[in-house]
Structure prediction request, 929 residues.
Amino acid sequence: MLETLELKRTPFHERTSRLSVAQNWRRWAGYAVVGSYELSLDHEYWAIRDRAALIDVSPLMKYLIEGPDAARLLHKVTTRDIHKMGVGQVYYTGWCDEEGKLLDDGTVSRLGDQSFRMTSAEPSLRWLAMNAVGMDVKVAEVTDQMAALSLQGPKSRAVLNRCCNDQLDALKYFRLMNTSIGDTPISVSRTGYTGDLGYEIWVEAEQALAVWDALMEAGDDYGITPCGILAMDMARVEAGLFMVDADYTAANHAWIEGQKSSPFEMGLDWTVNLNKQGYFVGRKALERERKAGSAWKLVGLEVDWVGLERLFAEVGLPPQIPDMAVRASLPVLAEGKQVGYASTSTWSPVLKKYIALAHLQRPHYEPGTSLAMEVTVEHHRRHAPAKVVKLPFYDPAWKKK
Amino acid sequence: MPANQYDAIIIGAGHNGLIAGAYLARAGKKVVVLERREMVGGAAVTEEIFPGYRFTEFSYVVSLLRPEIIRDLELPRHGLKILPLPSTVTPMDNGDYLAAWPDHEPTRREIYRHSPRDAEAADEYGRTMARAAKAIKPVLSLVPPDPSSMSVRDMLGLIKLGQYARSLSEKELYRIAKLVTQSSADLLNEWFEFDPLKGTKSASGIIGTFLGPHSPGTAYVLLHHYMGEIDGAFRAWGFAKNGTGGVTAAIAASARALGAEIRTGASVKQVIVKGGRAAGVALDNGDEFHAKVVMSAADPKRSFLSFVESKHFPDDFVEQIKNFRVRGSSGKVNIALSELPQFTCLPGESPLHRGAISISPSMDYIERAYDEAKYGQCSKNPYIDMIIPSMIDRDMAPPGHHVMSCFVQYAPYDIEGGWDDSKRDAFGETVISTIERYAPNIRRAIVGKQVITPKDIERIAGITGGNIFHGELLLHQLFFLRPAPQWADFRTPLPGYYFGASGAHPGGGVMGAAGKMAALEVLKDWHG
Prediction:
């Protein structure tokens, strides 16, 4: 078999494949990753919300951006003010095309004065290189060379404190530090995709397994649990975090204008710094949109359970909803007329609510607005009452503490 | 309003009392919930008996907590988390085991290993019970009408009940009639052949009753356990974060947020009666609280025989309450452990450690355990339902250490010669040596243990007779007969005095339905 026809294996495959009872594999950027280790998502989901979940996130695209103009490049590409970023800080950011429409989103970590790491969901090398013309900066993709583990959950700090050679108590939300586990140097950022207390651990691919083993051993007493991306998908919806391709279309992939989204439309207002100095890609369009207001907005939608129960009771059933996040577009209506769509919906075990991320047209996106979301009741399309709520749905006190 | 003047006073801050208080506060009433102990929770409490080890002292799982209560009181926002308690395993005497998971395929394969016939029967049995539970469930949320009354309210209730019964098919009606009268042994023998399977299933029919698997009526209790199945995704089955005390902590937080006042260390002595109506309560310390409405969330005996002088009730009512059966039949042993119990049948750490572990090798085993209890002895070989909370919630024990909750039946309240310290020790020893047969390392792993007899349940949680349901779930003590004929609608013969606890319809378990329904009846009367 041609190697290129196989899905790539992450540096943790030797461990994850043995632990995966369910043989539930998913594709992520050309890699095979575990969807769920067990037949049910419960144990993995609750590891994120109550213990410590160990998630292989190695397929994240990773770039090292180095040189005297590294900050200049990222300042130009992203919507954040990179010049204000300190060493050891991590920014979450989106980046746009010239029309102010999102191409992708990810994190930028300042490793040193002239050194950054950027993560993305889509390949971004070409975009970075195009924008770096005339700059003294080197952009290198390190996706395959660098393994990444996400350790998420209220006990994640205790686990790291047990096995790292430095204590992590002083590491603040969205900060980064270098430390080591045994002889293996790692970098740890207090970031994640779950909205809980959590860290991401960055390590050279050759040394990945040693880190996995050390974390699993240190975490044993805390109920550490290898966790697939399906449970993480539920958690990220609760955290109000969206995903390219599932919740928006990258502007360079869109066939028609209507498929594109701006950062404002995605609720990323806080990441768009229009006060920052100088040019950045999409600035003009974003300034215009800021003034005129956005036609759409990504918001939280909470389905009214009593209303849902009523629809199902008509056919003599309790509500039947999938027990995992569903990435399928569901129409959202106001007084019988479609005003938007939910892009990802999920049952939230921690909130005991049926929730969705929804794109809604002005003026229907204001919190408190009563709408209806399509549900399928015994093969019939029905509309369950739902309410617009602020994101995130779930925001535990310990996330930033 | 003067300081000690309220719209409503609730006696007892167990889950039902707190829920009633929350619903009344939600309706804008000025409410105080009075609790005798220094902590809220009643029999739904978590206590750190040994430093670092937290015991979910009495009740230990959440199974029937009503979804509408979780929603109405926004319990998840107030900290309620229900963690999965996925499996059940029954160690067998031959060193093998029988396990069950929520996932259908592995369970089927597991039963198949022991009995191919039972593997198929189990599917059909599960569906049949769930359908019967679905058919009977609407009754649980009805306020029981009095069949002998001609009042409009009762007549409407009876009509509703009749309409409901007519909506069932003939087949369903017969099935239900059979289920409520049959013994669990008869029912299970119709379906299954494999002893450990029958033993484990029959166990849920005897929990909290003073009956054995062969006693008629126990099949109905089995049915109770399928009620949760039909709440769909909302199903509240599992172990509460921080133990069952986590449930009452969330309800108390919600009640306070809604404006209810909760006073601990407030032991009620008597309900004050003025002009033939309940008008308040007097505490043991002499303090008085006044209100138009008083609700008791204590057990029926204390509510009607102790808090209120008998002269305020008709004689036959007093007689009915005196005869209400509240004999406790079970105890608890909570154990702090330095290591995980190693079951001979499950070497090492297994996912099954995260679920229930049931000592129920056969129905005969349980019936024999009952035989001894009938004559005032603790079972020599008791039925034990164990969970290891620290495997589910890591905050229950220090890292690497564990706590184990063992529900034990039978331990009769009326033990021959009465309970004393040496009998309690002997009871604890019986439990440990029973477990030791299946998990030989248990004894050396013990850091500390708490042995709770029915007498201790009475003393600590204040439940007369120490019955976990405040009164057995017997056919003659259910629905419009609970706690007494004509008084199953949460009202009592004393105007202004209400009753909303496990001893009222629809009975026990950490369900909360009685507290909620009683509060709603109070509000109905309020607004005429």
Summary: The interface with chain A takes residues 67-68, 70-71, 75-77, 81-84, 86, 101-103, 105-106, 230-234, 241, 351, 354, 391, 393-394, 399-400 of chain B (CB under 8 Å). The two ends of chain B are 22 Å apart (CA to CA). DSSP finds 18 helices and 18 strands in chain B.
